[in-house]
Known about the structure:
Elements: E1 3-5, H1 7-15, E2 19-22, H2 25-28, H3 35-49, E3 53-60, E4 63-66, H4 70-78, E5 83-85, H5 90-95, E6 100-102, H6 104-114, E7 118-120, H7 131-134, H8 139-146, E8 150-153, H9 162-171, E9 176-179, E10 198-200, H10 203-215, E11 222-225, H11 236-252, H12 260-271, H13 275-298
Parallel strand pairs: 1-4, 2-3, 2-7, 5-6, 7-8, 8-11, 9-10, 9-11
Antiparallel strand pairs: 3-4, 3-6
Helix pairs in contact: 3-4, 3-13, 6-8, 10-13, 11-12
Amino acid sequence: xxxxxxxxxxxxxxxxxxxxxxxxxxxxxxxxxxxxxxxxxxxxxxxxxxxxxxxxxxxxxxxxxxxxxxxxxxxxxxxxxxxxxxxxxxxxxxxxxxxxxxxxxxxxxxxxxxxxxxxxxxxxxxxxxxxxxxxxxxxxxxxxxxxxxxxxxxxxxxxxxxxxxxxxxxxxxxxxxxxxxxxxxxxxxxxxxxxxxxxxxxxxxxxxxxxxxxxxxxxxxxxxxxxxxxxxxxxxxxxxxxxxxxxxxxxxxxxxxxxxxxxxxxxxxxxxxxxxxxxxxxxxxxxxxxxxxxxxxxx
Length: 299
């Protein structure tokens, strides 16, 4: 697989220095402009400030790029023709010379092929509500079951069926570690009521569990769930009603497939008066900070 590494990422990988993978769908489809650019540049700044090289991953004119220039980030953030590229569409994106934000599954695939072992995102995709009728299940779950790396998230996106997503992760054999919690977080909210996770207390412990998983031949990802900071959360009792309303709007407008999650997130932003956007930024930065500490332990 031909991958274009930035000079900064390539030299760091060769030297064994810590590199953290960051996705780009959060830039292209997860936040409005200019918030998306501000978030992406802030995440990269935080990485460098702590001695870690950020590897924001995207498809740029058919090239799988690991490490973006500021102009590339700005281009995919404002161009309305920018695609949402999942793992199964990488070959098409390369052949057709697309520019696109990479989903969790595509980012994981490219990162692993590049030798990057830790990835921080906002929230993973999973089992959609109503999946018993639509069979709408994210490719992120398949990628998590097949690609051995550490993935840090604030749980699954709140617009999903979180209990079914957690069950699917168990069925697929994906280890799920709670960072300073034994409860699966619900993206905007710290609590989901789904307890029983293995609680970890430090980035070093997470790194050691991941290494032990590799040592015994576990070929899945190690999913680390990191609750949104208390000061930034939207309580579940408040956000759940808003999510239900957004899903109703999506059903009325017959929004399905890969367009559904971005549509729902935008609806939730509208219905919360922008509060959910601020929470999204906060949880994603929180995951970047944890990812930084984990990759430093592994380096």
